[in-house]
Amino acid sequence: MIINKKNLFSLIEFIYLLIPISLVFSIAIADFFLSLIVIFFIIHTLRDKIFFYYKNKIFIFFIIFCIYLVFVSFIKYQEVPLSVIFFFRFGIFSIATCYLLDRNKILLKYILISIFTTCTFVALDAIIQFIFGINILGYEYNLNSQPRLSGLFGDELILGSYLSRFAPLVFLQLGIIYSQLKNSKLSLIVLMMFLFLYTFVILASGERLSLVYFMISITIFLYLLNSKKIFFLTIILIVSSFLIISSDRESRLFKTTYLQIQGTFNKTQDGSYKLKDFEKIPVAHIHHWKSATLMLKNNFIFGVGPTKFREKCKEPNYSVPNGCANHPHNIYFQLLSEAGILGFLFVIVLFVLLTLKLASKINKNKSFDLKNNYVVYNLSLLCVFLHFFPFLPNGNFFNNWLNIITFIPIGIYFHTSYNIR
Known about the structure:
By secondary structure, this protein is mainly alpha-helical. It contains 16 helices and 2 strands.
């Protein structure tokens, strides 16, 4: 019986390690793996009366939020979307991660290796596609028709998003490798090689949001390394990557952004600048946010209902030119429009709390070692900070792919937070 239980745990841990690579090839498989882990955790903890993990304050807060979403959906439409009903599974997945890490002390090492290896594989494949115009799966890359590199993701332009959202954990593993090589010349070469690889691929992906996420992550990473030599070498690598990337991709990252900012203002006769009429501003997401604001205005407390933005934005009361989409491309505007001010407060309070926790620990022990819970704590929390950062466009709040990526580091954060109290 003991052997069977041990083998079962080994199987669950192996399934967990497959999640990073499954996110590349099939969200359905990744979600299936997550569901297996959640079901196993619930059955095992209830059977063995392990209730400690359910008492996590952030988890309880999250479950209350999930109940609120179900309540809003029901009172609005007398039905609840499946994505809302089962949203709680991500919270359980995070405490299941914490439990597995507490039970097996070396599992964190293998999770980081799994993420690092997968991200490196994805980045190398993207380099092959960039150089040869085709990747290992036969996905073609045409600079003229689509200047944004997609690699293994094919038609989905989420290469940069995948790498940038996992970047803090990739940097954690890279810092560990650098430290294990004892600061030798080889360690510096390896570090610079990987930094160049990730920087170049994210620039080539043409995803502006991913570039911002990545630059925040690399800044924190360099701060923790605390090496002037590495800092200046990294600046050189970043500049070199900018120069190598073609002007078409550069236009996506810089020229297009510049033109959008320029197109937002009119130059007056006295030389000053005046904001254009809202309808003439050439930034699509602003129009989505305007539609979301109209929904909030008429549904201040509870919003129009979770996942209903895509339907309500077509109605005359909320219709804005170019303002309709599946979601408003900002999780806070999405929550304001779909879950009202109460739903918004749930998440913004959580973001502020986690930001304060990150700020309070960032100057603690900076050594890159899995025995140093502070650096693991800070970089896992950084992943969460990037996901919930309010001042940038981002994806659908209920998107399974994004939430799986986000709740892995939340589980790691739970694990380390217990060990640094």
